[in-house]
Amino acid sequence: MSNKTLIFGHKNPDTDSIASSFVMENLEKNLGNDEAKAVALGNLNKETKYVFNYLGMEEPEIISDVENDQNVILVDHNEASQSVTNLEHSKILKVVDHHTMNFVAPYQLYYRTEPVGCTSTVLYKIYKEYGIKIDKKTALLMLSAIASDTLLFKSPTCTPDDIRVAEELMNISGVDIKSYGTDMLKAGTDLSDYTPEQVINIDCKLFEKGGKKFKIAQVNTADIDNVFKNQAYFEAAINQDIEKEKLDLYVFAATDIVNSNSKIITLGHDAPVVEKAFGVSVTNNTAMLENVVSRKKQILPNILNNLD
Amino acid sequence: MSNKTLIFGHKNPDTDSIASSFVMENLEKNLGNDEAKAVALGNLNKETKYVFNYLGMEEPEIISDVENDQNVILVDHNEASQSVTNLEHSKILKVVDHHTMNFVAPYQLYYRTEPVGCTSTVLYKIYKEYGIKIDKKTALLMLSAIASDTLLFKSPTCTPDDIRVAEELMNISGVDIKSYGTDMLKAGTDLSDYTPEQVINIDCKLFEKGGKKFKIAQVNTADIDNVFKNQAYFEAAINQDIEKEKLDLYVFAATDIVNSNSKIITLGHDAPVVEKAFGVSVTNNTAMLENVVSRKKQILPNILNNLD
After folding, report:
1. What DSSP letter does each residue of B12-69 carry, written as one string?
2. Where in the numbering of this chain does the DHHA2 domain appear (chains A, B) (predicted)?
3. Contact B108/A99, CB-based, under 8 Å?
4. In 3D, which of A92, A189, A157, A138 has the Cα closest to residue A300?
5. Mind listing the pLDDT tens digit for each residue in B189-215?
6. B130 touches chain A (CB under 8 A)
7. Do B104 and A106 make contact, defined as CB atoms within 8 angstroms?
């Protein structure tokens, strides 16, 4: 077992998971935990790479499992299915998150979650509570996470807290979220050198309800039609994953970050649930969901409410 | 469904559960939630009655279940088995706690727990974070909770945070925890007008592990021998509960708050687990556990580790 305290977000990490891991590492070091170390459960996506290039930061080490009794801190997730292998035998010191909860720990720990749009918004409050100074790099990491998770405040997941915190982070970092964030989000929409398997795994989460297993994958784009040129390839990759993982449903959403809607591919024997869930007709395994941009607040709850 | 936000601690409420409910009600009102209302899941024990008499406060309304979609806030617990009936259909807005976790919520919420000795220690930090002034009554409620949960700092559950917060609360309230807390704890040891059924239910918690159900009840005393004069009556009441609730084990601990040890009664077909768990011999269903005062840090983990 490593003496380190390993800090990580969820599998298929997005910008909030990666940025918040480094923000948490800095927080821990300020609190005297010199062994804190941010790692990742997967490769950085292009949006996050844009942030790291901008800041001249090195990418984190990637891990997939932990040894028994390893000290860990979870950010941006709490469910074992979205975390590292062997989490149940690790020692979870802290969790900082903003998601729904499904969590067991047979020991006391620090756990803080709030109903806000971004983990970094919660971390900002913790910095303030401890009176820890936020440097420019840390401020821009948090700002990037908020820009990503709230789609520049346009997602229904965005709360007044996220906006207020982002404004304070703009003051600290001297960076304007609109122009910087737009460049960052656009960098994330470049799918040109990904295989179809890679595209569906850029931001894919596994969920379970009453014995049913389903995945919802999401990519951001500024040109939905361009993404759907490769529909046949995505369907082949998705069907392969459905077979391998014994999934009941797979929803792949290409979310238009300019026009704020999503076109989906729905596959698996529960694929028709999408029609009831969103009041749409599925044609050729696809449907357009107007004004839908958030997996957490829109896609997931509608599916959960209609999946029997 | 009531428009109120009902705030409550665990069943068989102790001083932390009751005091923290009122401290949370005051916090919520300061944050603009005028509908916040502290209630209780059972009668106040004598220790808590001492606090309420001292402060001239009215006792809370007692509830046992909630309607669907009722807004609730949990303090000092998070597990459904220790909470109100129908919790799974309520809307949990917040949890503030300091226990192990076994919690599911299919929606975002505010959840804050820390590895400290008392819920009120966490609540004190939240007041500080929001910059909310702590009045003398609220300070004494928190101080009472800390004195109770840490047995005046003598329990192994007590942390430096609890001591630091208690010192600040003494400054605000103008009350010395040693003399006030000793009177409060002693008031809680008066079992003279309780029936045996009432004594075992003063502070009793239900636990589960791998399909096994067990209860650990605890009373504070300054005179263990006096408590055990009624051993036969307690055993009758315990055996009745074991049959009714289909329990595998029931441990009743009389904890000497002066000498910091506990004498237990162990019943149920898993009763012998106590011998392995604490390295003691059980005689006449009883054993003396030296230096054991904490259910959470000492009795529960040792039983969990040895219950197959």
Report:
1. S--HHHHHHHHHHHHHHHHTT-TTEEE-BSSPPPHHHHHHHHHHTPPPPPB-SB--TT
2. 181-307
3. yes
4. A157
5. 998 889 999 999 988 989 998 899 999
6. no
7. no
Could you read off the pLDDT of B228-276 as tens digits, one per residue? 999 999 999 999 999 999 999 999 999 999 889 999 999 999 999 999 9
The rounded distance, in Å, linking the Cα atoms of B226 and B190 is: 11
- pLDDT at position A1 is 58
Of chain A, the end-to-end C-alpha distance in Å amounts to 42
Percent of chain B exceeding pLDDT 90 equals 93
Of B101, B116, B129, the CB nearest to A105: B101
Could you report the per-residue pLDDT of B149-180, keeping only the tens digit for each? 999 999 999 999 999 999 999 999 999 999 99
Q: Which amino acid is at A8?
A: F
Of A110, A116, A304, the CB nearest to B114: A110
CA distance A241 to A250: 9
CB contact under 8 A, B105 and A101: yes
Given an 8 Å threshold on Cβ–Cβ distance, is A99 in contact with B115? no
Chain A hits for B73, Cβ within 8 Å: none
Cα→Cα distances B190→B90, B131, B150, B177, B187, Å = 36, 39, 19, 20, 6
Tell me the CB-side half-sphere exposure of residue B109, using CA atoms within 13 A: 24
Structure letter (DSSP) for residue B297:
I
pLDDT recorded at residue B296: 86
Residue pointed to by tokens 């076994």: B102
* CB neighbour class for B255 (10 Å; exposed up to 12, middle 13-18, buried from 19): buried
Residue in A106, A111, A304 nearest the CB of B113: A111
Mapped onto helix, strand or coil, the DSSP state of residue B2 is coil
Strands (DSSP E) found in chain A: 5-8, 36-38, 71-75, 91-97, 101-105, 110-113, 204-209, 212-221, 249-256, 261-267, 286-289
Residue of A nearest to B117 (CA): A108
Partner A contacted by B131 (CB < 8 A): no
Of the candidates A76, A74, A88, the one whose C-alpha atom is nearest the C-alpha of residue A6 is A74
Q: Look-up: residue for tokens 């989906």?
A: A264
Query: From the list A102, A113, A116, which residue is nearest B104 (CB)?
Result: A102
Q: Which residues of B touch A115 (CB under 8 A)?
A: 108-110
pLDDT recorded at residue A308: 81
Distance from CA of B99 to the nearest CA of A (A): 6
pLDDT beneath 70: ranges in chain A: 1
Distance between the two ends of chain B, CA-based, in angstroms? 42
Inspect the interface and report whether the beta carbons of B101 and A99 lie closer than 8 Å. no
